[in-house]
Amino acid sequence: MNIILKTDIAGLGYKNDTVAVKPGYGRNYLIPQGYAMMATDSNKKIVAENIRQAAHKAEKLKTDAQNIADGIGEMTLTIPAKAGDSGKIFGRVTNTQVADALREKGFDIDRKKITVEDVKNLGTYEASLDLHKEVKHKVKFDVVAAE
């Protein structure tokens, strides 16, 4: 079943993308929730016209995302965490903590656009930032023992 996405959906696609999904997923979840619409000829024409009209705005969003990525650059964040003597931290470092550290540096990035690998020990790690459909960036962060 082909559908056109109305919003970005992680792991599936971005707004205005035409994707193939299983019929039950499309009919029972995506379409009723307002996340997608059927990929009929008329809907495809409507989306194509909307894309054409929004091209200038989309270019500005991409430029803004690229400017944020350039601003972050090779920055290394420091995230304090309570840890034991062996260097194993209590709990884990999450995307919310990375978003807060970026906010302290002046970059307001939604936590849902940040992917953090499984962090359970002190050390240096990398988080992926999905700033735009075409702009991805990686930021390094050090997990240090909180005092």
Please write the string of helix (H) and strand (E) elements.
Answer: EEHEHEHEEE
List the domain count as a whole number: 2
Structural class: alpha+beta
Number of helices: 3
Q: How many extended strands?
A: 7
User: What characteristic shape results from the CA principal axes?
Assistant: elongated
Tell me about the largest β-sheet. Answer: 4 strands, mixed
Descriptive account of the structure:
This protein is of the alpha+beta class and 147 residues long. It has two domains: 2-61, Ribosomal protein L9, N-terminal domain (Ribosomal Protein L9, domain 1, 3-Layer(aba) Sandwich), CATH 3.40.5.10; 70-145, Ribosomal protein L9, C-terminal domain (Ribosomal Protein L9, domain 2), CATH 3.10.430. It contains three helices and seven strands; from the N terminus they run E-E-H-E-H-E-H-E-E-E. The protein has helices at residues 23-30, 41-72, 95-104, and strands at 2-5, 18-20, 36-38, 76-81, 114-116, 123-130, 136-145. The strands form two sheets. A four-stranded mixed sheet has the order 4-7-6-5, with helices on one face. It is elongated and about 60 Å long. It starts with a strand and ends with a strand. The relative contact order is 0.15. The model has no long low-confidence stretch (mean pLDDT 90).
Question: Key features?
Answer:
alpha+beta, 4-stranded mixed beta sheet, Ribosomal Protein L9, domain 1, 147 residues, Ribosomal Protein L9, domain 2, 2 domains
